[in-house]
Amino acid sequence: MNVTFATEVKYVKGVGPQRATTLASRGIYTVADLLLYLPFRYEDRIRFHQIAEIVPGVTYTIYGTVADEGIARFTRGRGAIFHLVIRDSTGTLACKFFHGGYLQGRFRMGQAMVVHGRADLDPRRPGRIEMINPQYELLGEDTADSTEMGRIVPIYEAIGKISSRVLRRIIYGALQNLAAAPLDALSPSLLARYGFPSRGDTLRFVHFPPSDVPLELLNEFRSLAHRRLIFEELFLYQLSLALRRKEAERRAGISFRVREPRVREALKRILPFKPTEAQKRVLAEIAADLEEPTSMHRLLQGDVGSGKTIVALETATIVIENGYQAALMAPTEILAVQHFLSARRIFAASGYGVELLISGLKAQEKQRVLERMRAGEAQFVVGTHALLEGPAGFARLGLVIVDEQHRFGVLQRKRLMEKGPAPEVLVMTATPIPRTLALTLYGDLDVSVIDQMPPGRMPIETRWSAPEHLPGVWDFVTRELRKGRQVYIVYPVIEQSKSNEARLSLKSAIVEFERLRKSVFPGMRVGLLHGRMRSEEKERVMEAFRLGDLQILVSTTVIEVGVDVPNATVMVIEHAERFGLSQLHQLRGRIGRGGEKSTCLLIAPKNLPDDARERLEMMVATNDGFAIAEADLRLRGPGEFFGTRQHGSLGFHIANPLRDRELLELARHEAFSLLENPEEEERLHLFRTLDPGWQRRYQLASVG
To answer: What is the Cβ-side half-sphere exposure of residue 7, based on CA atoms within 13 angstroms?
Structure first.
């Protein structure tokens, strides 16, 4: 049966209703969706390596037959190890699958198969080479199958019970039965400009590439066909950002009076110190936006401790002095409480009504805050997701501030904006974002950067100590406490795991708090802070530490952002290897906020895997947040960097903003040029050819 891009996937040969339901779980509804489910890797099944050629430490693809199998089970919850031996004409290869009990009965003697993985020496049997948890594929009886052997073979991530092998056959059939060349979202002039192949040729190439294409080119997604698909995704995404920006520019906003003496006096009242030149520059950029009759959409970026919060409060002052309300949304209750306490203190001289709206409030208190918001008496409201709920309304919302925006979705930002007619939007992040990623995530925003620290800040010295040196670390902490300083001690988990192995290897905040209080620092005032405490309890502990009533704060990562105690000069992070690089940098940013020298002590073993070692060495080497962010992106990729599979949620099948910087710049230029100088023919072409799924994903319905 012939199919088109719009054909429902259940009508493709080999799919049917049951598999269609499984495919739908991965967002595959049509042939277009199916053909955009791309291989994550390619194997050369024309020229296999032979087992006798294997050298330890190298990755191989081996073709052979099942020679032996067996299972070793263990007590104490450690699962089972499945042993498999495959044979070719030159020898045998052992394969070991940890937690592999599910593989029992899956293989039969003499069955043809392909394994792909890294070969290493078996530490228990000198001289024997093995593969640990290799990827494998069982082959059919007909090894002449044109999708499985004798070619470069695409490897897909399995979807439920639909294996890579089955997906390969389904996609091969769909390509063979495609009735006509699919319409192309990229115009002929755009394709010609970059020498890109048509959409049909591109999809045939990426799924079943010719045998003479270098394997490295395919596995690194650097072939012209891959680059064309990457460009297309980035182009359509940037086009959606450009449209959003244009729509925002057309929407009437509030033109605020900025230069009046009353506003200037109010700004002077709240400044606790002389602002840096960078802060002055950024406030001038924001003030210019506020004067315009269109809404501001600006990203305020700056390293930990650079003074973003005071700039946000200055912005709020301008808005409040013009008779409007401002709202600040934070990702956690602890950060919201910190912003609330800080704003209440700074706005005390101005007499503004400052309120806190979080889910932890008692019903009666929450109702009081909501009524003050609706009456306009709450002029500055700090909150969490509670601000997005239906009952949270404003009399005259003029400014929306979103802190640590990467922890919120674009739609959440939009929902808060809809609480007012056309509020100004200021997005803040203390996670330094390299330009590439800023273009991807915040391409619809103007960007301001505070690239200067307040005067008098001393660089933080960071040291890496092994756990056996902890007695010396506690001696150092005691000396600092005797000087009147305060100390953070951070642990990765709140309480001990129930498993014996984890209990022996991983310390927890609750257990260590008791031990430190009683045995290590008797007579010192030690507090405990973690995410499971009630809101008022967290607020009480933080305020006690801020006022100096507590000398030591034992905590989890809840203190990662927003906590500001200038007298805290020491941070000890136990199990530092368990934390991400940006997270370690954020934690370290809690100290070094006064004029005294500060020290961050990372406690971790010296014999660590390469990536963990690189993270800790980077922390010791630099305090530069942008250098750390670049390194973290390189180590973990953009999705993990933001704590979610962020680039997946942006709708990318193949593009990776970090890897594809050059194509991102080109795509952005083309997308914004298309809207600035719209040739009617190109716009109409795009609208005619874009299938509804793409329009939905990139919100491009307004292109036409």
So the answer is: 22
Statement to judge: residues 9 and 157 lie in one domain: yes
Give the mean pLDDT per block of 10 residues along the chain (704 residues): 86 92 92 91 86 90 89 60 92 90 86 89 86 85 64 90 90 88 82 92 94 91 95 87 76 88 92 85 95 89 83 96 95 84 90 92 92 95 90 92 68 76 86 68 79 80 95 96 95 67 65 93 93 82 91 85 81 93 87 89 90 92 83 67 44 77 88 74 63 55 35
Asked if residue 653 is part of any domain, the answer here is no
Determine the distance from the C-alpha atom of residue 129 to the mean position of all C-alpha atoms in its chain, rounded to a whole number: 38
Helix, strand, or coil here: 159? strand
Q: Are 486 and 548 spatial neighbours (Cβ–Cβ below 8 Å)?
A: yes
Task: Write the single-letter amino acid at 663.
Answer: L
> Quick one: pLDDT at residue 698?
54
* Cβ neighbours of 456 (radius 10 Å): 9
Residue type for position 638: P
Helices (H), 36-187: 164-176
143 plus 26 within the same structural domain = no
Residues 361, 535: contact at Cβ < 8 Å?
yes
Nearest Cα to Cα of residue 42 among 164, 153, 149: 153
Do 243 and 161 belong together in one domain?
Answer: no
> How many other CB atoms are found less than 10 A from the CB of residue 649?
12
Range of the domain at 142: 47-147
The pLDDT score that the predictor gives to residue 79 is 66
Return the pLDDT at 342.
86
Measured CA to CA, the distance from residue 680 to residue 682 in angstroms comes to: 6
Angle between helices 625-641 and 581-588 (to 10 degrees): 130
b (16+ CB within 10 A) / e for 263-281:
beebbeebeeeebbebbeb
- Could you give the C-alpha distances from 367 to 357, 387, 517, in angstroms and in order? 10, 13, 39
Whether 435 and 626 have beta carbons less than 8 Å apart is answered as no
Which residue is it, tokens 């920006």?
A: 245
| Phi-psi domain of 643 (left: phi exceeds 0; alpha: psi -120 through 50; beta: other) | left
Q: Name the helix (H) or strand (E) containing 380.
A: strand 380-383
Burial class of residue 207, CB neighbours in 10 A (0-12, 13-18, 19+): buried
Do 520 and 545 belong to one domain?
yes
HEC profile of 575-642: CHHHCCHHHHHHHHCCCCCCCCCEEEEEECCCCCCHHHHHHHHHHHHCCCHHHHHHHHHHHHHHHHHC
434 in the same domain as 315: yes
Please name every residue paired with 447 in a beta bridge, in sequence order, or none if there are none. 299
Distance CA 431, CA 433 (A): 6
> 3-class DSSP state for residue 303?
coil
> Does pTM surpass 0.85?
no
Rounded distance, CA 245 to CA 420, Å? 18
Handedness of CA 429, 432, 435, 441 (dihedral sign): negative
Select from 41, 183, 121, 229 the least CA-distant residue to 656. Answer: 229
Structural domain ending residue among the three candidates 574, 603, 622: 622
